[in-house]
């Protein structure tokens, strides 16, 4: 049984809901002992931020912010739980091939199937700023937002076109379907 020591030196029993100093110190020590083990276990499962950013840069030929690459990967993983495994396979393929850019990579034998699709999904997320397929006239779809201002598509015309921050077609332009022939 743990006791509290009052300022005057008298020992008292703890009341319900109050943690004694001994229990607090024991719990804290146990948590500190477990934390390095837990962080190492997480490090094995979580992709290295620089690996994802380097792969994104290789795929796009642009300097990709590491946080942006991680957001893209997280959104892609949310839509496809197999994406991390596919990304690992792509990273391994790139490492074994020795490719230094997408032009060399796309012509390599074996760059097909899920490896090629994974590369295309990452490129699409970084250029479009979202993942998934928007469904017109629907409130429900699988689109996940990645970025707006950092979307690589805006970088192509950055010197000539400002990133649009308002609708160029007027208010509520999306309400009506476009006229088709």
Question: What features would you describe in this structure?
Answer:
This protein has 181 residues and is mainly alpha-helical. The protein is built from seven helices and four strands. It has helices at residues 21-45, 49-60, 66-79, 83-97, 102-106, 113-128, 152-156; strands at residues 4-5, 11-12, 130-131, 144-145. Strands 1-2 form a two-stranded antiparallel sheet. It has a two-stranded antiparallel ribbon with strand order 3-4. α2 (49-60) packs across α3. It is extended, with a radius of gyration of 26 Å. The termini are far apart.
Entry keywords:
7 helices, mainly alpha, single chain, 4% strand, 181 residues, 4 strands
Give the number of helices: 7
* Major sheet size, sense and barrel closure: 2 strands, antiparallel
Oligomer: single chain
Strand content: under 5%
> Which regions contain 5 or more consecutive residues with pLDDT less than 50?
none
Helices and strands, in order, run as EEHHHHHHEEH
Number of strands: 4
Span from first to last CA?
84 Å
Overall body shape: extended
Give the class from helix and strand content and strand pairing. mainly alpha
In order across it, which strands form the biggest sheet? 1-2
Helix content: 40-55%
Radius of gyration, in angstroms, nearest whole number: 26 Å
Mean pLDDT: 83
């Amino acid at each position: 049984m743990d006791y509290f020591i009052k300022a005057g030196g008298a020992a008292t029993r703890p009341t319900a809901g109050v943690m004694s100093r001994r229990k607090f110190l024991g719990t804290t020590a146990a948590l500190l002992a477990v934390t390095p083990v837990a962080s190492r276990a997480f490090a094995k499962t979580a992709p290295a931020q620089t690996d994802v950013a380097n792969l994104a840069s290789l795929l796009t030929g642009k300097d990709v912010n590491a946080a942006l690459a991680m957001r893209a990967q997280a959104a892609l993983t949310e839509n496809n739980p197999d994406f991390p495994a596919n990304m690992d396979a792509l990273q391994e393929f790139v490492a074994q091939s020795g490719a230094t850019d997408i032009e060399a990579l796309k012509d390599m034998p074996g760059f097909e199937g899920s490896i090629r699709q994974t590369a295309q999904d990452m490129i699409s997320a970084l250029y479009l700023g979202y993942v998934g397929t928007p469904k017109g006239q629907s409130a429900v779809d699988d689109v996940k937002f990645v970025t707006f201002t950092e979307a690589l598509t805006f970088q192509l015309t950055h010197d000539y076109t400002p990133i649009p921050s308002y609708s160029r077609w007027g208010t509520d332009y999306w309400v009506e379907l476009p006229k088709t022939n």
